Amino acid sequence: MYRVAFLRDRGIIYHDSPGATFQDTSYWAQVMFAGHRVRYLDRSCYLIRRDNEGSSEADGGKVYDICHEYDFVRKRIDEMDDIDIEKCRYACSYYRYWNYRWTCGRIAASSIRGFISYFSKEFNELDAKGELDRSYFKHDELSVLGQIMDDPDAYYFENYRFRRELDELHARIDGLKCENEDLRQQLSGTESELAEVYSSKRYRLGTALSAPARIFKHE
User: What is the pLDDT of residues 109-119, one digit of tens each?
Assistant: First the structure.
């Protein structure tokens, strides 16, 4: 929750990009960079839905949208007043790193290799411009970042090469589960019909009338 006066005074705005696609990311970053005080509450005031099939997060075709949001954040850092520009640039790169890694696990399998290549190119450029402070990163984060920057293809093959095959297998399993559920329902219906036949008066009367014939046949 933000004071309206604070937002207006600091010129905090949403990224005017198409559709509803991660604009809260760039908005949140501006707020955190511009704010001098943050108060934490013991209740939820902001709800993120992750169960909507039509959400941006669930849309594997939205590959580079998060990149555009961080490009916007980077532009806004140079435009904002009364902030530590150098630290904000470093923080922007760090949060960009984590959102790019999150994107690798969200997008369609066919897009991962190209995105990792883009990830590598962009972070090498940030490093060359002096906007990558490695002290912001934990040891394991630096290890992953180093792999991506040095050899994106090797990182892709080691971590994501079989993603498409796994997705296809999971899809087939889900399909088989649906088919199995249909068969189970058909079987259940057939068993119910059979039980009705066994319990019907006609079946019981027929069985009783045919019993002498069956006994005679066996003798």
Answer: 889 999 999 99
